[in-house]
Specification:
Elements: H1 2-8, H2 11-26, E1 38-40, H3 61-68, E2 70-76, E3 78-79, E4 83-85, E5 91-92, H4 94-106, E6 109-115, H5 120-125, E7 131-136, H6 140-143, E8 146-153, E9 156-161, E10 177-181, H7 185-191, E11 200-204, H8 207-216, E12 221-225, H9 226-235, E13 242-249, E14 252-257, H10 261-277, H11 279-288
Parallel strand pairs: 1-6, 2-6, 2-7, 10-11, 10-12
Antiparallel strand pairs: 3-4, 4-5, 7-14, 8-14, 9-12, 9-13
Length: 301
Amino acid sequence: MNRLLKICIPNQWHRAIALFLTSLLLTISVASCSSSNSSITSMAVINTSVVAPPSGEPGKTLDKIMAAGNIRVAVPNDFTPFGSIAPNMAPQGYDVDVAGEIAKGIGVKLELVPVVGNYRIPFLQTDRVDIVISSLGKNKARAKIIDFSKPYAPFFSGVYGGPNLNVSSLDDLKGHTLGVAQGSLEDLEISKLPPEKVPVVKRFSSNSLTASALLSGQVELIATGNVVAAKVIKDNPNSKIDNKFIMKNSPCYVGVRKGDAALVAKLDNIIDDMKQSGKLNELSLKWFGEPLPDLTPPPAS
């Protein structure tokens, strides 16, 4: 049989076929119902650079979701507070809750597919999920291969400090001590300030040391990402740390396959409803410890 395969099939296809068969054997679907309207699917990863993805049916994903009665959503499993695995092995986080609200808005059951960051778009392209809700940023390169909803989640760099500091912009930092993680995006942004606006900057080797400096009083303010700040706020409620202002905004979007205009329109309507009802603000307070900020995306560069 092996000799016959070698004769009939060109050598360059042997590795691709082997990988495909291996991935097929390793793919597991484990339905573990956390409620009557949701399930969790664990799926093996394939090498999408070797095995060609299926062509799918662009523009028909919403119809397929409605016909199936469920929506398959890629969510993060390793990026708190957007998504992680709880002690009971169930996915949890902001993105997980948003996925539940979107399934409810469409009127179908939810099937969660936990993925790591590098496999978010490949799982979408290979039709292993219908949409991606996984702290997905939007850029020109991604916009060439997938489409996006309106922004639904905050992801930004901000300045944080105690409740008694009246600081609302970069112009107000002069005269204050500010902690940053050395070499971070926030450090680079502060370095762009003209000399007359530069605060007293103290640089630390990590985000955790920067946060500790704020809590111990070594600095009055810190510039950091909202994900880092969310943990500091949650772990230290008595410090009453809050967001003073946003330095750089890069919100998150729901990713869909290219050409799924009907699905994008449906998602946008649900996201608008969640904003107007206060649901997104409720989830932001729950997972980030602060109200939902303005999600207006930055101007295209």
